[in-house]
Design goal:
alpha/beta; Rossmann fold; Serine Threonine Protein Phosphatase 5, Tetratricopeptide repeat; DNA Cyclobutane Dipyrimidine Photolyase, subunit A, domain 3; 5-stranded parallel β-sheet; 5 strands; chromophore
């Protein structure tokens, strides 16, 4: 590499987890630099230490990149996708375009930070201009600290401190076609050649039915949420049988929408329409949990692989019984709310948040299986699998994380079903074997009298499984294991 680049006024925009044109600070800075802009995305599966995306996330990425390519073409912005080591390919793109400047938005996992910092130092040493921006978070992880300058480990004080920083900035408007001066186009790979989508078998039919990835899909989903579902969100968000959540998480994961856009969209909805201040505040608190998860990942990079609380290193996890683990993955545990959640996950690549907690609690506490098994399965099957949220949430349920639910809080799956799916609509939607079960028994079909089972067409152990564990006995076993761990770490 020569000591200085060839003279040029070009700018390279490196897309990463920010697959949108509106409220994209890196794009905005590139355009405002007055340079002609060329954009790239690099699928980096070669750099050591990067965690490969799971299957569902890879499917989403393929759709999102197609949408982004179309949006860039409509704006006259040259865009290409390449596969390989990102640091090498960014340098190649700079050389091929003759660009003097590169713009990107920041990432927060430890290995990604290392890659970006090293590349930035090298490029600046070769007299390139490098500008990074924040587009993924309302508050970057190092910005919110206690009055003693320490990172927070409990959500409530963290979120109070974050909110005390003031209102998040307004979203940046999408540039118009005339504002972007096209840079030099460079070759890339076809999306089909990247192998992001399943073929044999093609298991993504349910995902295609459930989602519209891309910035336009995110915009439409947000519009539907604020107009139809934000009202009553505070009280209904725990009901999986109702359309009561935003379903924005995969769009956030891939940066098709920004948290700033969400923050101000719900604020406008409260000012203009039926949503209440309580609904808006509850939704913003969910954005706050996402922020806190990234705050934790930044201070504890091994969040997905190590216990945040070291005392859990001695927890007596049981060796998973293959039959139990497979029953959990396939939604065949005999506990209807758990089975509905796991089947929703497999069919759509997503699961209602309340049900995620129930399913996680069942794996960890009823089956005594290490939380990392569940985190890995969700990582592979969730379209919104995020290195911060996924790991922080699993550790929260396990009791091993920051601000964790106490380990002795063990969800009773039948009672959780009765409370949050009272008429059984959610179970019926994903466990058709129980479609005709009366609501009174749908969350505990083993308690139904023989005539109810017969009339419903249910034969336990044949058409629908019997429970794979006795919840009461499993709860006692989990609590005794927790007591042993406490005694040993005292």
């Amino acid at each position: 590499m020569p000591s200085s680049p060839a003279p040029s006024s070009g700018a390279l925009l490196w897309f990463r987890e920010d697959l949108r044109l509106a409220d994209n600070p890196a794009l905005d800075s590139a355009v405002k630099s007055g340079r002609p802009v060329t954009a790239i995305y690099v699928l980096d599966e070669q750099t050591e230490g990067l965690r490969a995306m799971g299957g569902a996330a890879r499917w989403w990425l393929a759709q999102s990149l197609r949408a982004l390519a179309s949006d860039c073409a409509a704006m006259g912005l040259p865009f290409s996708v390449r596969r390989g080591r990102s640091d090498h390919l960014v340098r190649d793109a700079l050389r091929e375009t003759g660009a003097e400047a590169v713009f990107w938005n920041r990432r927060y996992a430890a290995r990604e930070i290392e890659i970006d910092a090293a590349l930035k130092e090298e490029l600046q040493g070769d007299r390139f201009s490098v500008q990074s921006s924040n587009c993924r978070l309302l508050h970057e992880p190092w910005e919110v600290k206690s009055k003693w300058g320490d990172p927070f480990k409990v959500f409530s004080p963290y979120w109070r401190a974050a909110q005390a920083r003031g209102e998040p900035r307004a979203p940046i408007p999408r540039p118009s076609k005339g504002q972007i001066e096209p840079g030099r186009a460079i070759d890339g790979e076809s999306l089909d050649s990247l192998g992001l989508e399943p073929t044999r078998p093609d298991w993504a039919g349910g995902l295609r039915d459930a989602w519209t990835p891309g910035e336009a899909g995110a915009k439409a989903r947000l519009k539907a949420f604020v107009e139809d579902d934000l009202r009553g969100y505070a009280s209904a968000r725990d009901r999986p049988d109702l359309p009561s959540t935003s379903r924005m998480s995969p769009h956030l994961r891939f940066g098709e929408v920004s948290p700033h856009q969400l923050w101000h969209a719900v604020e406008r909805a409260a000012a203009e329409g039926p949503a209440t201040a309580r609904d808006v505040e509850k939704f913003r608190t969910e954005l706050g949990w996402r922020e806190f998860s990234h705050h934790l990942l930044f201070q504890f990079p091994e969040l997905a692989s190590r216990n945040f609380q070291k005392r859990f290193d001695d927890f007596p996890w049981e060796k998973p019984k293959p039959s139990h683990l497979m029953a959990w993955r396939k939604g065949l545990t005999g506990f209807p709310i758990v089975d509905a959640g796991m089947r929703q996950l497999w069919r759509t690549g997503w699961m209602h948040n309340r049900v995620r907690m129930i399913c996680a609690s069942f794996l960890i506490k009823d089956l005594m299986i290490d939380w990392r098994e569940g985190e890995a399965w969700f990582w592979d099957t969730l379209v919104d699998a995020d290195p911060a949220n996924n790991a922080a949430s699993w550790q929260w349920v396990a009791g091993s994380g920051a601000d964790a639910a106490p380990y002795f809080r063990v969800f009773n799956p039948s009672l959780q079903g009765v409370r949050f799916d009272p008429d059984g609509g959610y179970v019926r939607a994903f466990v058709p074997e129980l479609e005709n079960m009366p609501a009174r028994y749908i969350h505990a079909p083993w308690e139904a009298p023989p005539e109810s089972l017969s009339e419903s067409g249910v034969e336990l152990g044949k058409t629908y499984p019997l429970p794979i564990v006795d919840h009461g006995a499993a709860r006692d076993r989990a609590l005794k294991a927790f007591d042993r761990m406490k005694a040993e770490s005292a």
